[in-house]
């Protein structure tokens, strides 16, 4: 048996590549404070995404349910609630500290509203903070993005302390030093959720950090990676530019790691290690010239399968009384929600898909699940087991396909204010999500309809990697006998979560 912590701190670093972290075998970049936390933690080496990208991934953690099989990107729905609502009924104090702009845009509604309090550091990426740029900022190459909200904000960051990420981490450290001690003195339990958007693009840092891994670069740093497949072959990037972008990502990791140190210092000074569970996690990785199964270099999060560089993600869990070590058991982001629910004995009434991590903390040799489903709505569905990573794309046209939502919101694109999926029409029907009697609008799409942004793109396919025999995941064995076994397991997994019938048809599983 392990002891139950009184409190929880979750630190989410966005777009954090597992293979770039020294604590998981990376050698390119310095992260002394992540290493410092890892030395106190269980390192989960077989942790994977569920719903992608940003907002769907946060839905996994805060709501505990995969939603990529039902909708693309949207708010907390009427039939579910965030863990913070459950904790409020238990009298638990919850604090959100973040610079993540998508939480305050259309499509991110209701994620912050049930926290006891929330603190937002302005100015990152798409945050509509300023109406005009500071004249001192000349911008940087954006690979087709054009003028962005960030171009208006960037000139207002005079030094590292002014950037949104450092401000977020300093605010979190201050909350730990002052507010957490206040709540402890009053016998109040708490959840601190630090949703840090770094190292998400733009990979922009002050010069002292920007030159850290590429001190021979001349001219404006390349802080905006393209979202592209075969970028070098197509002339979008040169090899030299590719190195510069990857180095800027490393600079962003090292800068935010430096400020993470202030949070760890605050945990030290308040004695938090004795009564608090600390999770360090991410939503997904980021392709930075990694190669797909066809040998093409891939960048950003283009419309392609969830390869391991994007979907095999890091997680550290520091737990009072648990000896640091390594856990190779299969886990996913919804398991964080299940663990927090268990710590606080919260009541959750909606259907969830997580398993508590506590059996693994008690004995890392155990297992809590046999498979993970992961993907982006409207594209391939991926199955991950200890043996396989299986990618299943649509058979023929990507249809039928339905979006299930009563809030009907998806990711806004500031550059294209008129680019919006149409509202529900005469094809919409009322249906029910698994585990609830609350009606939900199910809008059917047909071939030729405008789909939400992340579902765009063509070229879906079937791919199967044997993770044990092919750890680099480069050899497609889908045509072999294991392909049939993986297909049957995927069918079973989709049936188990009561996935919409659309997927069985479009994926050729019916």
Describe the structure.
The protein is of the alpha/beta class and 510 residues long. Helices cover 25% and strands 19% of the residues. The strands form four sheets. Strands 1, 2, 4, 5, 6, 8, 11, 12 and 13 form a nine-stranded mixed β-sheet that branches. Strands 3-14-15-16-20 form a five-stranded mixed β-sheet. The chain has a three-stranded antiparallel β-sheet with strand order 7-10-9, covered by helices on one side.
Give a brief rundown of this model.
This protein is α/β, with parallel strands linked by helices.
Q: What is the terminal-to-terminal distance?
A: 44 Å
Q: In percent, how much strand structure appears in the residues?
A: 15-25%
The CATH topology of the largest domain turns out to be Alkaline Phosphatase, subunit A
Which architecture name of the largest domain does CATH use?
3-Layer(aba) Sandwich
| Shape annotation | globular
Structural class: alpha/beta
CATH homologous superfamily descriptor of the largest domain: Alkaline Phosphatase, subunit A
Write the layout of secondary structure elements.
Blueprint: E1 7-13, H1 32-38, E2 42-48, E3 51-52, H2 54-63, H3 83-89, E4 93-98, E5 117-120, H4 149-153, H5 164-185, E6 190-196, H6 207-210, E7 228-229, H7 239-269, E8 276-281, E9 287-291, E10 297-300, H8 308-311, E11 312-318, E12 325-327, E13 331-332, H9 334-344, H10 358-362, E14 372-376, E15 381-384, E16 388-392, E17 401-404, E18 429-432, E19 439-445, E20 463-466, H11 481-496, H12 501-506
Parallel strand pairs: 1-6, 1-8, 2-12, 2-13, 3-14, 4-5, 4-6
Antiparallel strand pairs: 2-11, 7-10, 8-11, 9-10, 14-15, 15-16, 16-20, 17-19, 18-19
